[in-house]
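Submission checklist for the structure archive. All mandatory fields must be present; incomplete records are returned to the submitter.

[x] Identifier: Acetyltransferase (GNAT) family protein
[x] Organism: Actinokineospora diospyrosa
[x] Residue count: 249
[x] Sequence attached
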Amino acid sequence: MTVAPTQLTDITSLPSDALVRWGAQGLRPGVRAWRDGDAVVVACPDLSRRHRLLVHGTGGQLLGLVRHALAVVGQDYRPLGDDKTVAEVVAEFAEIELLDNFWWMDTVDPTGVIGTARWLTEDATDEVRGLIDSEYPGSYAKPGGTGVRRWAGVRDAHGALVAVAADAWSAPEVGFLAGVITAPAARGRGHAVAVCGLAIDTLVTETGRAALMVDSWNDAARTLYTKLGLASRPIAAAAHRSFLDQPLL
């Protein structure tokens, strides 16, 4: 007789791993989590504009959890976890394909950056949207998006908004930084450091940890965040082939 995996309803039952705790989002309504031994899978809808399946562990227990979770929540949930863990999932499930590799970066320490960045008020929404549409239209973090809470910004001497960073999809124990953009004419002046420093320090104070994800090819961004004190680890994302062209939520 097959025994169903244990469904978790208490956040303290999850491993302390920062990526898993971020994906669990405090086990808010709609999030489901299962454990089998040391393996844990968390299904979180609409997290960073996708349905995510956080995978943690190795071997048969993990793969059995993934199979169970996908049967419950649907094939459109995308596995996300340490690169070797995701590689195991891709190797087991012929219908699941590796999408890309990333760096997960986080810190529990404030940066100590003192700059000109400030948290923006709602009346700056159109300015933030204009900067994103002009310089980073592919940003997952956009004003008004689900889970996007607030924006840090820097203005130039004329009052124009020249750099932003979002507090987006933060969890109770892991604050999350996204949507970092600097206008081309204002680059090289420390504005990215200023907005990231403000966001990271605020999130560390409020949640105990600040985190973000960086594309594997983006050495400049990884260097910046490393200088700000964030440690990195390799992660990866995958998806069912039937949902590779799934539009953003």
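[x] Structure attached
Curator remark: The longest strand covers residues 96-107. The mean pLDDT is 95.
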